[in-house]
């Protein structure tokens, strides 16, 4: 069990009734910015507050910051729409892909919040996506926002850093409808206990969902092996099924109710909350390149399963990512024996393909030719597949900040 700390600062309406709360990840009782990356912080906030069984006020909204990666991965869809406000951080770029995704969130009923910079950058062309805009009373002159608020009556403007009663009265008079600051309440650092599923359980769930997406019994079985993972799945199903008269208590019922896509999103969220992406993002990119290459090269080898080849490539750097011996990790994963042999000793067909990938990565061209000859592969076709995989990985990294 781990203790998750977060800063909670209320947001009020013009009648000083609480409208919602800002949730920000913290590493301890001191209200300081954490040293971990944004995606890990966001995922831990979501896991501890929405998937831990804690009772939240249904009448309040909870503002959580999301990076471009988390938004494109559809992580918010794991959380009840009515409660969650998606805060679009300054690092998010107004790309066509992200615009389309935000439109999907709006259609689903999510509230989308941004800061005042959206009026001065590329987001200016997409202001219709935002329901709430925050303006800092400490950094900006509130009088300058009167005409803007008049021009955008469908957007609610939130005055932050309201320190005194006079500032609240002025902001209210100018047209602001939401308020936050020390005048109302200082941020409080709170904590929730959160039991995180093991990474091995999460990876096993990924394997089964990708390999046997329609086998509900097998998916339920692998989820049920980890009590914490099962608890998160059942909790998530019950949160999303608020309208049901009876709570969901049966594991299989929870899996069926969530559905494949929601399960994938939930597991992605839990994996993110268990890893520090600052430390292993480059390893993830390398692993994705290997996975895509091996999947594309697999049809060149008789009898090789492209999906199994993908998993071997994807898991080939797990020991470095999790700082644990590969023997310990592979021994616990539900992989075919041939795939396990590939990861442990680069033996067998999958192992030879993985070794070929490593030689290409290090530009060991003599070895590349030798391995291709041994595997009766055309070197030109192999290198073409690697270039294609590298291009796809670069595209993925550029659009999703992998």
From TrEMBL:
<dbReference type="InterPro" id="IPR052340">
    <property type="entry name" value="RNase_Y/CdgJ"/>
</dbReference>
<feature type="domain" description="HDOD">
    <location>
        <begin position="189"/>
        <end position="381"/>
    </location>
</feature>
<dbReference type="Pfam" id="PF08668">
    <property type="entry name" value="HDOD"/>
</dbReference>
<dbReference type="InterPro" id="IPR035919">
    <property type="entry name" value="EAL_sf"/>
</dbReference>
<dbReference type="InterPro" id="IPR014408">
    <property type="entry name" value="dGMP_Pdiesterase_EAL/HD-GYP"/>
</dbReference>
<protein>
    <submittedName>
        <fullName>Signal transduction protein</fullName>
    </submittedName>
</protein>
<dbReference type="InterPro" id="IPR013976">
    <property type="entry name" value="HDOD"/>
</dbReference>
């Amino acid at each position: 069990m781990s203790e998750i700390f977060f800063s909670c600062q209320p947001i009020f309406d013009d009648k000083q009734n609480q409208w919602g709360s800002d949730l920000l990840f913290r590493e301890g009782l001191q209200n300081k910015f954490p040293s971990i990356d944004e995606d890990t912080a966001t995922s831990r906030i979501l896991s501890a507050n929405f998937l831990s069984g804690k009772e939240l006020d249904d009448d309040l909204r909870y503002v959580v910051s999301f990076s471009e990666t988390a938004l494109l991965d559809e992580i918010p869809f794991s959380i009840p729409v009515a409660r969650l406000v998606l805060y679009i951080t300054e690092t998010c770029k107004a790309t066509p892909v992200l615009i389309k995704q935000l439109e999907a969130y709006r259609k689903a009923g999510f509230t989308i919040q941004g800061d005042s910079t959206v009026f001065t950058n590329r987001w200016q062309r997409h202001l219709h996506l935002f329901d709430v805009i925050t303006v800092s009373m400490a950094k900006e002159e509130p009088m300058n926002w009167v005409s803007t608020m008049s021009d955008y009556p469908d957007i609610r403007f939130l005055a932050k850093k309201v320190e005194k009663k006079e500032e609240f009265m002025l902001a209210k008079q100018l047209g602001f409808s939401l308020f936050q600051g020390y005048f109302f309440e200082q941020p409080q650092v709170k904590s929730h206990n959160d039991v995180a599923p093991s990474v091995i359980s999460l990876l096993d769930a990924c394997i089964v969902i990708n390999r046997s997406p329609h086998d509900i019994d097998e998916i339920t079985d692998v989820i049920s092996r980890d009590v914490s993972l099962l608890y998160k799945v059942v909790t998530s199903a019950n949160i999303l099924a608020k309208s049901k008269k009876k709570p969901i208590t049966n594991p299989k019922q929870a899996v069926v109710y969530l559905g494949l896509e929601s399960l994938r999103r939930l597991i992605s969220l839990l994996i993110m909350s268990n890893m520090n992406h600052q430390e292993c993002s480059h390893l993830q990119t390398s692993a994705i390149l290997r996975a895509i290459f091996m999947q594309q090269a697999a049809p060149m080898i008789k009898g090789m399963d492209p999906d199994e080849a993908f998993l071997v490539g994807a898991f080939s750097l797990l020991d470095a990512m999790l700082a644990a011996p590969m023997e310990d990790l592979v021994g616990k994963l539900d992989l075919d024996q041939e795939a396990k042999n590939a990861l442990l000793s680069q033996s067998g067909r999958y192992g030879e393909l993985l070794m070929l990938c490593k030689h290409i990565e290090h530009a060991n061209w003599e070895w590349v030719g030798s391995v291709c000859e041994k595997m009766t592969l055309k070197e030109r076709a192999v290198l073409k597949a690697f270039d294609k995989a590298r291009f796809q990985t670069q595209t993925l990294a550029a659009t999703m900040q992998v």
